Amino acid sequence: MMNSVVPVFDLAEGGLWLAFARGVTIAALFSLFGTLVFLRVVAPRCRPRMTDLEAMRAWRALRRLAGLSVAVAIAALLTWLVFQAGAIADAVTLRQALLATPLVLTATRFGHLVMVQAVLLAATAVLLSRSASRQPHALAVWTAGVAVILHAGHGHALSVATHPLLLPASMALHLLAGGAWLGGLVPLLLFVRMSPPQTGATVCRYFSPLGKLCLVAMLISVVFQGWVLIGNVPALIGTGYGWVALGKLALLGLLFGLAVLNRYHLAPALRAANARSAQVWLVRSIALQTGFSVAVILAAAVLASLPPGFQPPS
Length: 314
Description:
single chain, about 325 residues, mainly alpha, about 75% helix
């Protein structure tokens, strides 16, 4: 009787394995970049309103979050590399995918981008470990940011002939804005939960301009990418790419609604008589917002795995 290989790790078709690995990688990159931006831009402005103990606890929590994000980003990136190698090599087992990984790493654009991103993440980890102050080294923000930008090379930006410069630039802007805003939600949540209500109101006040700027950048880039990659209404409602794009847009709308609720209703209530109750509701709202942001990232990962809705005539 012939021996048969059981396909315990069938990646020949890619599918959800690749989308999930891509999504976790993006989420970890966003978390790292958003946390570092928060530590450099928002947190220092709140320090005068905090006691030494409160500041120490908050900064320690955020630096731990940054370190965890680096570790998860590297692990997810390497896992994604193996999954992608398996898909390229029509691997049926994990061993086959691992055997194909060195060639994919050294001979493909995807592998080259993964190598550079991994080096940048390792450099970020070193900079974080050597930073003596509460603020991370400014260079760590740059290395993390470039790692985020390079993720545009994994999508459709470099494979679409039209707008060869504008589309990659738009996707890079989209990724940076998403990382600073969505990646900053967990730091915002930690700060609001660990600080007195008055300090929480200050945190929200200083995070709001950053969030607004990022939201505008994301919307502009989404409109441009939709025009290039979808192009028309039939492609929007008649393709899987279009429907996932609509789902992502709806999730962004929910994120915007929660941001408005937080900034103009719950955050001001932190200065009122019922501050503790408002703090509880604000923490819950930011947690819900964080959950929707994860859904947005997963939708983006699925989009990057699908062919664009618009197909130019041949």
